[in-house]
Amino acid sequence: MEFPNFISPIPIHPILLLSLQILSSTLAVCYTPTASLWRPAVLPLQLIFVHSIVSSVNYMRPFWASLLGGLSFVLFLQFFDLNLLSKWSFEHNGPVDWVPSSGKKLNGATRTTEAHQNFHAKVSVIDTLWNRFRWGFNVNCALRHINTPQESKNCPHFHAQDPEYTPSRPVFLARSFLIAVCAYMTMDVFSSQPPPPDPATLFGADRVRFFTRLGDVTAEELAMRIMVTVAGFLNSYCLITGVPLLMSFFFVGFGLSEPRFWRPLFGSLLDAYSVRRFWGNFWHQNLRRMMGEPALFLSRSILHLPEGGILERYTKIMATFYISGVVHAIADLAGGLPWSKQLTVKFFVTQALGIIIEDTVEAVYRAICGKKRTPGPPAFWIRIVGYVWLAGFLVWSTPMWVYPGASRTSEGTRSILPYSVINREWT
To answer: Where are the alpha helices (DSSP H) in 254-309?
Structure first.
C-alpha cells in the first residue's frame, strides 16, 4: 500500500499542515450541524493533510516525521469519530446520540442518561463563536475525554485506591517535571548506544520468524529478541509519557489548564498478566475510542452482527487492532520505512489473535474445572502463569514491528532527542 502518485503533497511545513488539520476539524465540529454536508465534505481535506504530512520526511529527522505522520492519522480518526460517527455537537456537549459506557444501543433513538444530563447542565456555557471554537478545539485534542461521560475505559487515576484524589498544582508540576526528566534520561541512555554491527543481518526479515527456525535460534539471538522487546516498549512508554507531561507542565504552570485533566496515561504493570490486560489496562488508552467507534460501526451498522454475541465481540477486537496497526504503519511510513518492508499491521493483528487464544484457553479451563468468573484478580499462581505467557508472547511477536525499522539503522541515524545529556552534544 502506497499513497496514490496523482496526489501531490502540499509544499508546506508539516507542523503548519498539522495545525491546519486541527483547525479544519475544529471548525467542522463546533460550527456545523451534525447533519450538515460540510462535515463529510471536510473528509477529503483531512486525507490530503495526512498524505502531505506523511510525505514530508525530508523536512525533519525520521523519528520526528514518524511522530507527526502517526499523529496526523490519529487526528483523522478523531475527526471521523467526532464529526461523522458519533456526531458531536456543541449543544449536547458530546454526541447527539450518546452511547453509554456499556456500548448498548437503544433502537436508534436519542440516548440520554441522567449522568449525561447532569454533566451537560454542569458545563453548559453561553453560545458564542469563541465558546464554540474553544469547545471544538478541546474535544479534538482530548483523546481520552477525561472527566466526561465519554471517558475512555480504564483510564488510570492519580491514586488507584482513591479515584477522587487530584494533586495540588505545585505537587502536580513537581511530579510532572521529575517523571519527564526520568523519561528523557532513559531514552537518552538507549539513544546513546551505538548501533550493533551489521543491523541488516541481525534484524533481517528471516530473523523475525522464530518457531519455524527454532533449531537455528541461538542463545545470543534469543537474548537480542528479549532486549529489543524490552527496549522498544520502554522507549515507547517514556516517549508517550514524557511528551504529554511536558505539555501539562506548560499548560498547568501558566494556568491554562488544571491537573485533573492530565491524569496518568499508563496503568500498573502488575495488572498486565494477559495480552488483553497489557493493552487494555496497562498500556495507554489514547486511541481506544477513535479505534473502537469504527469497529463498533463495522460490526453493528455494516455487518449487522448479533449484539453481545461472540462473533461481534471478536470482530470488534480484530478491527480495533487492525486500525491500530494502520495508525502505527502510517507512522513508520512517514519515518521512511516503505509499506512493503513493514510487518506493523501483522504485529497488531497478532495481538488480537493472542487475546482470542487467551479467551479460548480460559473458557476450556473453566469448563473442565467447573470454575466461574469471579470479581477481583485471579489466584496468584494464575497471574504468574499470565506474566510468563505475556512475556513470551511479546518476545515472540514484537520483532514483527521493531526489526524492519531496526535493520535500517546506522551510525548516521539521528536520535529522536534533540540533545544528549550523556554525550553532552546536540544530536
So the answer is: 275-277, 288-297
